[in-house]
Amino acid sequence: DRELMFPLPDEHARREILDIHTRKISPPPAPGLLDGLARRTAGFGGADLHALCCEAALHAFRRRFPIAYTSTLQYKLPLQHVHVSQEDFLAALAVITPAAQRQSTGAATPLPDYLRPLWNRVVR
């Protein structure tokens, strides 16, 4: 097996990644907003920045069309009326945890007592 190490993007690279993931948003986010997001997202990888942009768009959708989450009816909603704002990106920042900061507790749990005899046979 091979393990490849890819360093996390620096601020300039994060800004370029944000440009890619926001290019279809209309109206486009202000350049100053994207610059600020690039500064605030140290530790975010490309997938984390993608998740941030998606979460901001979903926040804007929920803000604009809350009925879509409370009704069982189906609606044809005019998506051109969804505008992703700074408020939406800030709400997304509060929700998204970058992969580099997530912890996995599954491997850190103690071995259950009923499995100890099996483990002892393998280790000896």
Please outline the helices and strands.
Blueprint: H1 11-22, H2 31-40, H3 46-64, H4 67-70, H5 86-95, H6 116-123
Keywords, separated by commas or semicolons:
124 residues, mainly alpha, 6 helices, 51% helix, flat
Summarize the structure.
The protein is mainly alpha-helical and 124 residues long. It has helices at residues 11-22, 31-40, 46-64, 67-70, 86-95, 116-123. The two termini are 27 Å apart.
Describe the overall structure:
The protein is mainly α. It is 51% helix and 0% strand. The chain has 6 helices and no strands. Helix 1 crosses helix 2. The longest helix is centred in the middle third of the chain and has 19 residues, at 46-64. The two termini are 27 Å apart.
In percent terms, what proportion of residues is strand? under 5%
Instruction: Compute the number of strand runs.
Output: 0
What is the arithmetic mean of pLDDT? 87
| Gross morphology | flat
Main sheet: strands, sense, barrel: none
From N to C, what is the helix and strand string? HHHHHH
> Stretches where pLDDT falls below 50 for ≥5 residues?
none
Task: Work out the helicity level.
Answer: 40-55%
Radius of gyration: 21 Å
Structural class, from helix and strand content? Answer: mainly alpha
Q: State the separation between the terminal residues, measured CA to CA.
A: 27 Å
Number of helices: 6
